[in-house]
Write a structure and sequence with these properties.
Length: 165
């Protein structure tokens, strides 16, 4: 009888421990949560882009770019952070006489992630704060990469867009 009780107690212990085995770090809910966290981190590039453009903050803008990155706009490609900074310094949003707020309608943002690489597309609607008039609308199609724990732009191609609902 004593063996039966001890054996039964061991069986219950083994079954209960085996039931806990499904909560390992490789579960699909953990994978989905990690993916969502990466997508959110990539989306922060778009948020910082608009903050930088709205406040004429070139240093913040340049913090979004990877070393050796490229930026193509109006048919011209700029390679390296120094060349990109120079090009952006001449762009409308960074001109001191322009007081524009940069915004993206949420439904015009697309983000993907695959390991340490991803893509980000958004539109910039630049609105004059004094008149409320849309001064410029451009698209930004970007390749991004996780570098030293931070998502950075490795390639960006600007484009014109058609405003539509």
């Amino acid at each position: 009888m004593r063996r039966l009780v001890i054996g039964g107690a061991l069986a219950v212990l083994v079954v209960s421990l085996a039931a806990c085995g499904g909560s390992g770090s490789g579960s699909s809910s953990d994978d989905a949560e990690a993916r969502e966290a990466q997508l959110y981190a990539i989306d922060q590039i778009e948020r910082s882009w608009h903050k930088a453009a709205s406040t004429h903050n070139l240093d913040l803008m340049m913090s979004l770019w990877a070393p050796g990155s490229s930026f193509t706009i109006s048919g011209q490609t700029y390679t390296g952070k120094a060349a990109i900074r120079e090009a952006l310094s001449k762009a409308g949003p960074f001109q001191p006489q322009n007081h524009w707020v940069s915004d993206t309608p949420a439904y015009k943002i697309r983000t993907t992630v695959n390991g340490d690489k991803g893509t980000l597309y958004f539109q910039c609607h630049y609105v004059d704060t004094k008149t409320g008039k849309v001064e410029a609308v451009v698209g930004a199609d970007q390749d991004v990469k996780l570098i030293d724990g931070k998502w950075l732009i490795t390639n960006s191609v600007g484009s014109t867009v058609t405003l539509s609902p």
